[in-house]
Design goal:
The chain is about 35% helix and about 15% strand. It has about 375 residues and is α/β, with parallel strands linked by helices.
Length: about 375
C-alpha cells in the first residue's frame, strides 16, 4: 500500500501558515498540566463565543448527567437537543472529542455538539472521558465503553429513539474510542447473540494504531508511510505524537486491540456497521485510517472515505482556512449517510422556525386573536 500521493503540504496550507506563524508556534516544552489548562481554556472560550454569536445557545438545550465508571469513579455525559423539537425521541449520535487524550472538556465541544444537534435535528450525547496526565493506560477507553453502555440503556432519559440504532463518532483520539466501542458491540453481538445498538460510525482524522505497533510491513516503503512522510507535519508531528503517547504510560501492550483497534483483522471486522472516514493527507495518522478503511471494505462493510490532500491533522479547527467550511459540509454529509436507511434514501427534515403570526383580516382582528403555527420538527444552520 502507498498513500503518499496525498502527503505533500498544499498551497492553501502553506499560505495560511505563512500568514499566521504565531498560531502554529511550538508548545511542546510547556509542562503537560499547564499546556492542558491553556489549550482547554482557549478552546472553551472560542466555542462559547461562536455559540453565542450564532444564536445556538438559545436554539439548543443541554443537560449534564453523572455516569458511574468501572473503577468506582464517575464521568459526565452531556446531551444536546434542539429546543423547538420538544421532548419527543430523536435519533442519537454518541460523540467522543479529540485532543491527544490530554485535551478536551465538556465546554471545548459546546459549539461542535450544538451545531450538529441543530443542523441534523438529533440528540448529540458527548461522553467526556478522563484525560492524561491525570489518568493513564486504558482509562479513556474504559470510560468510553462505560459511557456508551449508560447511554444505550438510558435512551428514555436522554430522549433518544434507540430503535433507530446509535451513530457513534469521534475526532482524532475520539476516533480510537469510537472504533473501540463499535468493535466491542460487534463482539457482544457475535459472542452473546445480543443485537448491536450501533447503526454506523463516523471517524474523523482517527488515531487507530499505537505508534509502537504500526504495521510498516504492509506498506510499499517505510519512508512513504504517513508516520515517516509527515514526521514534521504542522499541528501534530511524529515527535508530538510520541509525547502524547508517553503520557498514556507503557503498561499496556501497544498491539492490544483496545489500544489499537486498527490492528483488527478482516475476519474480526465482518459485520461492522457502515463507516465513514474524514482523512487529512499531510497527517501522521493518515495511513492507519486508510488501512482500516481498506480492511473494512474487504470485510464487506459499507465505507465512505473523504481525503483532504495536503492538509495537516486538525486543520478543520482553523476557521480562516477555506477547507474548514468544506470539512463541515463533508461531516454533515457523512452523518446523513450514516443515518440513512439501507436503500440510501435520506428524507430531509423541514427547517425549524419560531412561531410566526398569520396575517389578520379586519374580521379576525375584531372578533378573535390571530393563530400561530408551531412546527415540531426541524433542521437548520
Amino acid at each position: 500500500m502507498d498513500f503518499s500521493q496525498w502527503g505533500q503540504p498544499s498551497g492553501e496550507w502553506l499560505a495560511f501558515a505563512a500568514a499566521n506563524p504565531a498560531v502554529l508556534a511550538n508548545s511542546d516544552n510547556v509542562p503537560p498540566l499547564k499546556l492542558q489548562k491553556i489549550a482547554n481554556g482557549m478552546r472553551s472560550a472560542v466555542a462559547g463565543n461562536i455559540v453565542r454569536a450564532t444564536g445556538l445557545s438559545k436554539l439548543v438545550a443541554k443537560q449534564d448527567y453523572e455516569v458511574p465508571t468501572r473503577d468506582g469513579q464517575s464521568i459526565t455525559v452531556r446531551c444536546y437537543r434542539p429546543v423547538l423539537l420538544k421532548p419527543r425521541p430523536l435519533p442519537g449520535y454518541v460523540y467522543f472529542h479529540g485532543g491527544g487524550f490530554i485535551f478536551g472538556s465538556l465546554d471545548t465541544e459546546l459549539f461542535n455538539c450544538s451545531w450538529l444537534a441543530y443542523s441534523l435535528s438529533i440528540a448529540v450525547v458527548h461522553i467526556c472521558y478522563r484525560h492524561t496526565p491525570q489518568h493513564k493506560d486504558l482509562t479513556a477507553w474504559h470510560d468510553a465503553l462505560d459511557g456508551f453502555e449508560w447511554v444505550a440503556t438510558h435512551d428514555e432519559t436522554l430522549g433518544i429513539d434507540i430503535s433507530l440504532g446509535l451513530v457513534v463518532g469521534g475526532i482524532s483520539a475520539g476516533g480510537s474510542l469510537t472504533a473501540c466501542v463499535v468493535q466491542n458491540e460487534l463482539r457482544r453481538e457475535r459472542e452473546g447473540g445480543a443485537t448491536s445498538r450501533v447503526r454506523a460510525q463516523v471517524l474523523g482524522i482517527p488515531n487507530l494504531i499505537h505508534g509502537d505497533a504500526f504495521p510498516y510491513h504492509l506498506f510499499a516503503d517505510r519512508e512513504k508511510t504517513s508516520i515517516e512522510q509527515c514526521a514534521e507535519a504542522a499541528v501534530i508531528s511524529k515527535e508530538r505524537m510520541r509525547l502524547f503517547r508517553d503520557l498514556l504510560g507503557r503498561e499496556i501492550n501497544p498491539a492490544d486491540r483496545t489500544w489499537s483497534p486498527g490492528l483488527a483483522g478482516e475476519e474480526e471486522l465482518r459485520g461492522t456497521p457502515k463507516t465513514a472516514f474524514l482523512v487529512a493527507g499531510w497527517d501522521p495518522l493518515r495511513d492507519e485510517a486508510l488501512l482500516y478503511a481498506k480492511k473494512l471494505k474487504n470485510s464487506g462493510v459499507q465505507t465512505k472515505v473523504h481525503i483532504f490532500p495536503g492538509l495537516p491533522h486538525a486543520f478543520n479547527a482553523f476557521t480562516q482556512l477555506p477547507s474548514h467550511k468544506r470539512w463541515n459540509e463533508v461531516l454533515l454529509d457523512c452523518m446523513r449517510w450514516a443515518a440513512a436507511d439501507e436503500d440510501g434514501w435520506i428524507v430531509e427534515i423541514p427547517p425549524t422556525l419560531p412561531p410566526v403570526a398569520r396575517p389578520t383580516t379586519a374580521t379576525t382582528s375584531q372578533s378573535q386573536p390571530a393563530k400561530t403555527d408551531s412546527p415540531e420538527t426541524g433542521n437548520g444552520l
